[in-house]
Write a structure and sequence with these properties.
Layout (H helix, E strand, L loop, with lengths): L7 E6 L3 H16 L3 E2 L8 E6 L4 H19 L5 E6 H13 L5 E3 L7 H10 L4 E3 L22 E5 L1 E2 L10 H5 L3 E2 L2 H13 L4 E5 L16 H8 L7 E4 L9 H9 L3 E6 L7 H6 L6 H14 L4 E8 L6 H14 L3 E6 L17 H24 L5 E10 L2 E5 L11 E4 L8 E10 L2 E6 L11
Parallel strand pairs: 1-2, 1-3, 3-4, 4-5, 5-6, 7-10, 10-11, 11-12, 12-13, 13-14, 17-19
Antiparallel strand pairs: 8-9, 15-16, 15-18, 16-17, 18-19
Helix pairs in contact: 7-8, 11-12
The structure holds iron/sulfur cluster.
Iron/sulfur cluster binds next to helix 5.
Length: 455
């Protein structure tokens, strides 16, 4: 620890990439206010657990993580424990009663105050709940940020909050109304990230397609993509979390025509039966979701299509589930995430009758995943023999891994690389030689030099 550091802080960051960005902003804020960042909890004086609470399993994981650290706090090995993020944002006061070992609870709107809050906690001055209902702090390019992921692959939050009415989702109540970042702030951050070594930029928001709607000039996501497409040094721009009914032709054409924006679309469709889509308040029908899949495939050459579905939503009959399976069989998505429905306090779905028994929801979850595994085994096998650029993520003795443009970080598997091991962040030509479960194997060719990167 630097001799003048106030204390060493360890972070445990849970949940999605949006939460990871909040962690990075808190780390930046603490580092600029005299704290040292500990790599291991054993070396720390204080710990911040940044939590997720969007579904039951995420909440359980967050509570388990807090309880693990709480033991260290109780035994005195840690001098302060702070719980931040979605969990206190949602249940601040209740948590404070149940978790007396925790010194402070910081909601999603109070991240910028993490340093003074920790100062107080370490000094034993107060035990506080710092939560503003329905407000989330949205960082910009001026906020210091310490990346916790690899430098060559960065996330960039383009907006925060959500105004959609999806019946199952607690996010609007937790993260508040939708707010976009300014385009010039995003371009400036993209440049900063490129200067810091980022080659891949993953754009995240709760609803990326809504970007710009709340800004006075009312720009749209295609405008932002065109501006980011000009940023030198970035090779891959990846779009995550698109809302299906908001994908217009201009967006499809922009993705197809861009140099750096990847032909990769992540569009959570959630279900495929009209009854379920209506009950979920998605504003979509089975027919227009089918039409969307066709439009995306026709409009974006070489498209990788990722989606997510929810099984066990209230009222989901066996017929609804089979309709969903038929759709998955027919659409042959490249990647599918499947969530089991859980009642979320304050949502419209929690009040709905027709709850699906847990065991039944588990069976549907298992079956849909197994179906997608079969499809994916075929789509991955079809890639063997192809040439494709690989972004190297990790180089260790005897093991190098990377990803294709079709693989988003953390969720879409990796490519195991053979050949001249290079360094992380390099874009190398790969020859795909095999499939390993949800992953691929490839031989590395000569290092790629051409700019911009091939898609
Ligand atoms: S679009 Fe729907 S599912 Fe996504 S964050 Fe908004 S309300 Fe939740």
């Amino acid at each position: 620890m630097p001799p003048d550091a106030k204390a060493r802080v360890f972070f445990r960051s849970l949940g999605c990439p949006k939460n990871q960005l909040d962690t990075e902003v808190m780390l930046g804020s603490l580092a600029t206010r005299g704290y040292a960042i500990a790599e291991r909890i054993e070396d720390a004086d204080a710990c911040v657990v940044n939590t997720c609470s969007f579904i039951e399993s995420a909440r359980e994981e967050s509570v388990d993580a807090i309880l693990e650290v709480a033991d260290l706090r109780e035994s005195g090995r840690l001098r302060a424990l702070v719980v931040a993020g979605c969990l206190p944002q949602r249940y601040g006061a209740e948590l404070a009663k149940e978790l007396p070992e925790v010194d402070a609870f910081v909601g999603t709107g109070r991240f910028p105050e993490i340093a003074p809050i920790l100062d107080d906690a370490l000094a034993g001055r107060s035990r506080g709940v710092y939560v503003d209902a329905g407000r989330t702090h949205l960082y910009d390019e001026r906020d210091p940020r310490i990346p916790i992921g690899p430098r060559h692959s960065a996330y960039m939050k383009i907006a925060e909050g959500c105004n959609r009415p999806c019946a199952f989702c607690a996010i609007p109540g937790i993260r508040g109304r939708f707010q976009s970042r300014r385009p010039e702030s995003l371009v400036a951050e993209a440049r900063q990230l490129a200067e810091g070594g980022a080659r891949e930029l993953n754009l995240v928001a709760q609803d990326s397609t809504a970007w710009g709607w709340d800004l006075p000039e009312r720009p749209g996501l295609p405008d932002l993509l065109r501006a980011l497409d000009e940023v030198e040094g970035i090779d891959w721009i990846r779009l995550l979390y698109l809302y299906p009914t908001a994908i217009g032709d201009e967006l499809v054409e922009t993705i197809a025509g861009a140099q750096r924006v990847l032909p990769y679309v992540d569009v959570p469709l959630q279900h495929a039966s009209d009854a379920m889509l209506r009950a979920m308040k998605r504003g979509a029908t089975a027919a227009n979701q089918r039409e969307l899949v066709e439009r995306l495939r026709a409009g974006i050459p070489g498209l990788t299509l990722r989606t997510t579905f929810i099984v066990g939503f209230p009222g989901e009959s066996e017929a609804d589930f089979l309709e969903l399976c038929d759709f998955v069989r027919e659409a042959r998505f490249d990647r599918v995430g499947v969530f089991r429905y859980s009642d979320e306090e304050g949502t419209a779905a929690a009040e709905l009758p027709g709850k699906v028994p847990r065991a039944e929801a588990r069976r549907r979850h298992r079956e849909l995943l197994a179906l997608q595994r079969e499809i994916m085994a075929e789509t991955l096998a079809a890639q063997v023999g192809r040439e494709a650029p690989v972004l190297v993520d990790r180089v260790a003795p005897g093991l190098a891994t990377g990803r294709l443009a079709s693989q988003a970080p953390e969720i879409d598997g990796v490519v195991f690389l053979r050949g001249e091991a290079t360094e992380p962040g390099q874009l190398v030509p790969g020859h795909i030689t095999g499939v390993r479960g949800a992953d691929l194997e490839a031989e590395i060719g000569a290092p790629a030099t051409a700019q911009p990167a091939p898609r």
